[in-house]
Design a protein that fits this description.
Distance between the termini: 128 Å
Strand content: over 45%
Number of helices: 0
CATH architecture of the largest domain: Sandwich
């Protein structure tokens, strides 16, 4: 049945009249007086639940049926099968399914109490309260006798009085601490039993003794776990180990003659905390292999001329650094080792030493300084293309290298015109000659006013002429600029003669420029075309 629903049934036979009873008020039952020997049984559902309905006649004969209202799901709760509470703490959970209403019980009320309330909006609430340390079994029962059980553990949080970092010595013997709270039994583990052993016991007044025993110098994580899986962890360190060392010392130098040879160099490792690891910072120069055992050592194999740092590290993180060098018997050198020059220049360098007759060349910034890919002549040139800097690396056949730094500055003007200034009257019809000094002798010339003067560059000579069309190719300016008349205090008009500057500009192929000025005077002698 659903809540609030009504069902009717016919009842007959036996010895009327009839009576009816319901075992659960979740379902009410009534029966009418017989009509023509037949009575009507009415069942009304109130709330979810289950009830046993018993109909009796006047002679005591009975019939029985079950009425279920609401869900037919199994009895359930959202509480876990094992709940942990602190003393004085509580937790609430939902209960449903089965045949409400529900009854609850605690196997140890001195440890945990339980209550069920509701329903509120059809939901029953299960409340668990921790009373004292211990364990209790909680049982939930519905009206049909279905049961559901869960375990409640009550007690403080798992703890130990060990600090987060425990320091021990090899000569100091075992160290003890306390473990309590949580749920017994406890277990303990040492992350590295080569350094520290950990054990539990005995137990006194609910407190367990934790014993740490040093074995060798090193560090180990210690973890205590209770029966519910709660954990507390800390680190135990054993001191007294000698300082990490190697028989290699602080530096190793191996001649380049050993490159590619089958032999390797072996060095002892000691102290610190085994096992050890060994690495090379430059595997292009040297590779390493470590062997851990009763006697630990590492081997180095040289591969190319150069340097590498060999790092020896123990399990506690201590590090020893060894400078490893594969040296050439004939060091590679470049001269000069650095230069500063200007854009557009080409500079030469000589190479000496190293192994082999071919050197490879690379520029870190070829847009600033470009070099050929290689040279076999013991020298090379760099072309300086733009302002900036570039590192040129020279490498021999064994990989030995050297680096030179090239700094390129913007080109400084070194070109000039001679003369730098000329003055002529507008009636002058000859040419004006300028000579260029400096630059690269690849010149382009410009006149600031091509209506007055034109220019012709030939090598380092610049020739300027009056514009064709004027009288006798004169440098006429009257047609371009009007003379000005003023009136003096006596009332007489005075003509103010004017001048005109024409600037000659010369530019070479690298953008270097030089300038000269021609000043032209309006001397009123220009004649036809200049008046």
């Amino acid at each position: 049945m659903n809540p609030s629903s009504v069902l009717t049934f016919a009842v007959g036979g036996g010895a009327p009249n009839y009576t009816v009873a319901s075992s659960n008020p979740a379902v009410t039952a009534t029966i009418s007086a017989p009509v023509s020997g037949v009575a009507t049984l009415t069942l009304t559902a109130a709330v979810s639940g289950a009830s046993t309905i018993v109909v009796s006649d006047s002679a005591g004969s009975k019939i029985q049926l079950s009425a279920i209202v609401g869900t037919t799901a199994s009895l359930f709760t959202n509480a876990a099968s094992n709940v942990r509470l602190d003393v004085g703490g509580s937790a609430t959970f939902a209960v449903g399914g089965g045949a409400p209403s529900y009854s609850v019980s605690s196997s140890a009320p001195a440890v945990a109490t339980v209550a069920v309330t509701g329903p509120v909006s059809g939901v029953y609430t299960l409340t668990l309260t921790g009373v004292d340390n211990g364990t209790s079994v909680i049982t939930i029962t519905d009206v049909n006798g279905s049961k559901l059980s869960l375990s409640v553990d009550v007690g403080t949080q798992l703890y130990t009085n060990a600090p987060s970092a425990v320091s021990m010595s090899l000569t100091g013997g075992a160290t003890t601490f306390r473990v309590g709270g949580g749920k017994t039994p406890y277990s303990v583990s040492s992350g590295n039993t080569s350094f520290v052993l950990a054990s539990l016991g005995p137990v006194s007044s609910g407190v367990t003794t934790l014993t740490l025993t040093p074995v060798a110098s090193g560090a180990s994580p210690i973890t205590v776990t209770d029966a519910l899986g709660a954990k507390v962890s800390f680190t135990a360190s054993v001191g007294g180990a000698p300082t990490l060392f190697t028989a290699a010392g602080s530096a190793i130098t191996i001649p380049a003659a050993n490159i590619g040879a089958a032999t390797t160099s072996s060095f002892l490792i000691g102290g610190g905390n085994a096992p050890y690891s060994v690495t090379s910072s430059n595997t292009g120069v040297a590779t390493v292999v470590v062997s851990n055992g009763a006697t630990s050592n590492f081997t180095v194999t040289p591969l190319a001329v150069g340097t590498s740092n060999i790092l020896v590290t123990d399990s506690a993180g201590s590090v020893v650094t060894i400078a490893f060098t594969v040296a050439s018997a004939n060091p590679l050198a470049v001269s000069p080792s650095s230069i500063t020059a200007s854009v557009g220049e080409t500079v030469s360098f000589s190479v000496s030493g190293g192994t082999g007759s071919t050197y490879t060349l690379t520029s870190s910034n070829s847009s600033v300084a470009s070099v050929p890919a290689s040279t076999t002549a013991g020298s090379f040139t760099a072309t300086l293309n733009a302002a900036g800097s570039s590192s040129i690396t020279i490498k021999d056949t064994l990989g030995q290298s050297t680096v030179l730094l090239v700094t390129v500055n913007t080109a400084v003007q070194t070109m000039r015109l001679s003369p730098t200034a000329v003055a002529v009257g507008e009636n002058y019809s000859g040419t004006i000659r300028f000579e260029v000094s400096g630059g690269d002798n690849t010149n382009t010339a410009y006149s600031s006013d091509n209506t007055i003067a034109s220019v012709t560059p030939v090598g380092n000579v610049i020739t300027v002429s009056g514009v064709a069309g004027a009288a006798n190719n004169q440098y006429c300016i009257s047609a371009n600029i009007t003379n000005v008349s003023t009136v003096n205090p006596g009332g007489q008009a005075t003509l103010v003669k004017i001048t005109k500057d024409v600037v000659i500009t010369v530019v070479d192929s690298k953008g270097v420029m030089a300038f000269a000025t021609i000043t032209i005077y309006d001397n009123l002698l220009g004649g036809v075309g200049c008046l």
